[in-house]
Amino acid sequence: MLELDRYDASEHQEDPSALEGDIPEDAGFTVKIQAPGTEPTDFHVSPLAMVHEIKQVLMDREETCHRTCFSLQLDGNTLDNFTHLRSISGLQEDSLLKIVEEPYTNREVRIHLRHIRDLLKSLDPTDAYNGLEGSSLCFLRFFTEQHIEGESSKLKKRGEEIKQFNYSPPEELKGRIKDFYKSHTVLAMSSWNPPPGNRKMHGDLVYLNVVTMEDKHYSVTASTRGFFLNQSTTYSFNPKPASPSVHSHSLVELLSQISSTFKKNFSALLKKRTSTHPFERISTPFQLFSWTAPALDHAMDCVRAEDASSSRLGYEEHVPGQIRDWNEELQSTRELPRKTLTDRLLRDRAIFKANSDFVTTATRGAMAVVDGNVMPINPGEDPRNQMFIWSSIFFSLGFDVREHYQKLGGEAAAHAASTIDLNGVSAYSVVDAEGLYMLGTVVVDYRGYRVTAQSIVPGILERGQEQSVVYGSIDFGKTVVSNEKFLKLMDKPSKQLRMQRHIVLNKDDTPVELASSVECKGIVGNDGRHYILDLLFTFPPDLNFLPVEGEELNPECQQLGFPRQHPHRLACLRQELIEAFVKHRHQLFMDSLSQGLKQEDNCIQAAVSPLVNSEAQNICNQAIDDVTPDPASQSISSKEILPQSFDIRFNPDIFSPGVHFPSESSKEIEEQKQLLKDAVAFLISNQIPAFIGSCLDHTTMPMDGFTLTEALHQHGINIRYLGTVLECIEKSSRMLALDHVYRIALSELITRCTKHLFKTYLLAVEPSALSASVSHFLNCLLSSSPDAPGTQQMDRLASRRRSRRRRSRGSVGGSLTAWASLTSCELWRMIQAEALEYYHYSMPCWSVDQAVDKCGLQRINLLREISIKTGIQILIKEYHFDAKHRPVFTEEDILNMFPVVKHINPRATDGLHLLHCGQIKVQQGSLKEGCELISQALGLFTNVYGALHRDVCTCLRLLGRIYYILGDYSEALSHQQRAVLISERVLGIDHPNTIQEYKHLGLYCFASGQAATALRLLYRARYLMLLVCGEDHPEMASLDSKIGLVLHGVFECDLALKFLESALALTSKYQGPNSLKVAQSHHLLAKVYESKGEFRSALKHEKERYMIYRSQVGDAHEKTCESSEYLKHLTNQAVILQRTMNIIYKNSAGGNIAPLKLTAPSRSWIVEQLNLVTGIKQLLCTN
């Protein structure tokens, strides 16, 4: 949450009330929309919306979706598409906007065809599986469809339904899509295109061929007036209108007139499409790629064919015939005004839209570069050194061009430099200093290549770098120049990024002042803007992985074997670590002021890492020097101290080779060196133990490699410390409780090492052998077969190479058949060597079988991780990993290779601030105030990002929980359902966040009385958890407890026991046998056994609960007394049962025997227990 921390420090955002007076008038109002031949309908609009956004919504509504070429008119005046509604005079509540059909142009016809194609394919998941057009998968409706309402009538059948549930993605999905896809009439561009001159004079634009479902063939003319049938055939050109004349402004209306089947099927498709949630249909701002896909049919698609043949890449529809000037677009959005909240919203929206468009285009361009479809600007050079310009974007490959990085690690440094530079661009973008500009930057990993895409500074290609750079150095510090304007512009970034202004010596020993590293270059473009680039050294170097001759690290680092060699010398500390270190030092500083200088040593000892558990401290001894305060400053208030007396900054050039400092700075340089040593010691002695401590108390609970990486980064720990983290876990006395973290971390290490090797492996593969080589690599990695037969696959490919086409970029790595000789043993030896070299960790497994049997890893989890990291898409089917005599994967199982894209993520700063304030209010117990603030944040996020964004998902989840706590279950359901949809669309159907969203929705469904739907959702979450992390995980204990409770609620006691017993075993393992959560699990089991009438087992579990409460909170605590009373109740019931049984055995009448009551628990009790399991209610809560 660094963005929140930085934003809190800004001068105009101290509390949410600062925003309230500036909230835009965005309440919205209602207008009437009238289409030709229809009655007016009400339409709610926002004053911040633009006219073209209203048109986009109309193109999505069922009654107007077939129209694209129209304008909106108010009182006879046509509205400009790019005008905000608030700027239109005369537009007010109940104003009538008329839809007026406009004449077509060639461009409008193609837009119309694309839109109709999108309508016909709106229920087809092909684009989502292929990663096209912002489509992504969404499965929620298949688990809630026809079950979200009216379940009360099905109470008697619940038991039967529960047993028949199938909670994996439904197989009938593909069949359903095919049924609707039958409405597709075959639509193709005619070979008679383009129209001859005489027909252009009659308004002809495009000719189409149509084959209807009735197998009738038609020729259609798209003209300026619309669409009509002509008399042409395949071999005869007769463009005159057919008789009888069939004409329509919309192609859909024309097809409906000539094909009754199309009309019927299209109507059904629209009804089905309308029944889906809008979030399922709109495009995501950033393309999501699925690592699995079914076998899909390849259908005819004229739009797709035209895109491929005409190379539309880089040409956007709203800028016809022109290439977008990406640099101008990206920089001009940052120049928009930002004084008022409305200004900032419009600015943030423009920045986000420009960036997402740039990322999309850069990704397409990078793929085209690797595929060999873009000519290099230096074709005579080695393929590794070639550079490209395409669509006003500059592309370079991640190789060490002209040995530029030779002293920093060669190829390894060149590969890492792109992402490190991107991190610097991201950091400067967040600071958002006015007048300082960064290049648009995207890093794309595709088919073994790393491609960096950057916007082009105006004029930089016409002059040499030596003439362009006015700030920084182009020769690693030998020649350094500075610039007063840049020093002024860098003032704000250097303060927020904690970079120290410093003096370096030029090659003639003249002093030069810098506010950044010497490698940071300042360029004034031909547009007059001041650009900074090459931000590799934005953050301080990581001395733990940068051995420097004559320098010794702090003792705690040396004890763990630091400094260690790293493949490159670009390793730097994370911004999160710098912030945590400064915050820690400030806390020590404040404590020393409050307690007095005499008690300084004791203060430091007590203040160090209160969250770190003792065992972690034994691993890493704390030894950090305090900052000595000025005695005169002891009377200064804490608010005055932080900005004035306490300002830690790092010199980014302190250990840079070739950089020299003046002799008078020697003392300051030594202090800076020690400060940097203290920072890396802080990472070892504080942050790594703090991370392990958070895993032990379950405040951090990673489920896969992505969430583990996120958690490490939040603690400021670079992923290169993964080996150190694993070693610390292995030394822990509570390693059993950290078993899940160990397995996930080991899996992450293995798959990252594999990714490094796979990159090199792919460079030696020609394009025609991609599927065979990838399947062979996966067999070597995951198959139990001794050696996967790669040479056999090569034999089958031999014939394909006979007619080799022009050379592609896929052949620069060496022998084209080298990949086939790779064996499983060799690959795992290489993984071990990579783990030792990169992570300094000796792996405990030497094969996939050992990884599974000895370390508890699962092949499916490894397959998912490596596929996501490398962009592999595999066929959905049952893979038999244990097969000994045949390969697990064949080349038919490898469907595609997608790019892995890294880019900056612009944020809506005002929305983040309101969200942060709302979360604080909720934590303080002010639920309604917090709800209002979070609702405002949701509105701001939606204005900036649109509906599909992770921040929107976060707001919806928080609002859903607040409404649930307040007892408004319908609102909770509504918000949480949208949160699930967004998470599936934006993060992925199997992302850990999506699993959590499913769990929350299941809880709210049960509380609303929809038990069957709740079970479907919880089982879906469990299915995904098995795929992501396996069954042995503390989150699975919580999930199994919820499933068991819901099953108990519908009196499925036997099934409930299985899940609750599994939850008990996992809870005991990860929480400890005497934890309160174990006591709760025993109680849930006791209640189920009571419902079954098995009182002996119920007594056994309740006694365990009683003993835990007694030992943990004492005899007098309410929970202990409650357990004691329940034990008496169970004993009494057991006695009644035994008496009843004795009487039955004696064949006597039992007139005075009390009846035995075996009933399902109340829904309110189940909900209360679900709240305890979820953490909404505390275990020791007295009410």
From TrEMBL:
InterPro entries: CLU-central, CLU_dom, CLU_N, CLU_prot, GSKIP_dom, GSKIP_dom_sf, TPR-like_helical_dom_sf. Residues 1-23, 787-811 are annotated as: Disordered. Residues 1-15 have a biased composition (Basic and acidic residues). It is found in: Cytoplasm; Cytoplasmic granule. One of its GO terms (molecular function) is mRNA binding. This is Clustered mitochondria protein homolog. The lineage of its organism: Eukaryota, Metazoa, Chordata, Craniata, Vertebrata. Residues 304-546 form the Clu domain. mRNA-binding protein involved in proper cytoplasmic distribution of mitochondria. Specifically binds mRNAs of nuclear-encoded mitochondrial proteins in the cytoplasm and regulates transport or translation of these transcripts close to mitochondria, playing a role in mitochondrial biogenesis. Residues 799-809 have a biased composition (Basic residues). Keywords: Cytoplasm, RNA-binding. SUPFAM superfamilies: Hypothetical protein c14orf129, hspc210, TPR-like. Belongs to the CLU family. One of its GO terms (cellular component) is cytoplasm. CDD domains: CLU-central. GO terms for biological process: intracellular distribution of mitochondria; mitochondrion organization. PROSITE patterns: CLU.
